[in-house]
Amino acid sequence: MKRSRLILLFALATCGAQSAMAQGWQSGRQGGAWGGSGWNKLEMCQGCHDMGMRGGMGMGMGMNRGETAPKLGGQHAAYLEKVLRAYRSGERRHPIMNRMASMLTDRDIADIARFYAQSE
Amino acid sequence: MKSLSIAVLLVLSWVGASPAASVSSSGRLKAEQVCQACHGPGGNSATDQFPRLAGQREAYLVSALRAYRAGLRNDATMRPQAERLTDEEIADLAAYYGARTGLTTRRATWCGG
Question: Domains plus CATH for chain B?
């Protein structure tokens, strides 16, 4: 438990995440290549879904040992929206994802889905 | 000629006995017979009703299929499919789809993206 907390702290510290996250959270970043309302909230997704850590990140937040977050890049937008809504309503259950999705508006969900569905 | 056919037989029996070959072929067989109808050839589904599986993390596919099988994830289509699968078949399918090309990870936006 203690060790996984340390891993989480380490992950947050990489790339100067803390300051960037705080900044993004408060101000958002409008006018960039990707200016949707879900933009800064993407940072909530990427620690687990995009950081290529081997074996995934348990993070001591209720994930099972060896459980890993799915890749989302290239997934269908409509499917991502459906799943995020199901997590938000509690229809689909996951200790981390229910909390994450509860912070999202409909607009955020659409923006996040669009971001991941786009081919790079 | 005779030695050639013996050599061929030897190679075939070696291939048949190799665990790696049998694992991937049974995963492929099931994927093509069952999963492909919705998830598309190689797990690259053509319609947005069904998620892409190609290139998905193997460990995630295993936990998702087990959750469907146990009823922890409720889906009218996936649950009956997953209920028919053994642990070994789940592992084979996850290995098959994990090895395909498709889904990607994105560069983290806080890393200068």
Answer: 24-98 (1.10.760.10)
pLDDT number for residue B107: 81
Class of domain A2-117: mainly alpha
The shortest CB-CB distance from A73 to any of B64, B73, B103 is to: B103
Question: Does B2 lie at the interface with A, CB-CB under 8 angstroms?
Answer: no
pTM: 0.73
Write out residues 68-87 of A within 8 Å (CB-CB) of B. 68-79
Could you give the C-alpha distances from B77 to A13, A66, B74, in angstroms and in order?
42, 26, 9
Q: Across the interface, do A39 and B109 touch by the CB < 8 Å criterion?
A: yes
Kindly state whether B113 is in contact with chain A, defined as any CB-CB distance less than 8 angstroms: no
pLDDT attached to residue B51: 97
Alpha-carbon distance values, A115 to A120, B84, B95 (Å): 9, 35, 27
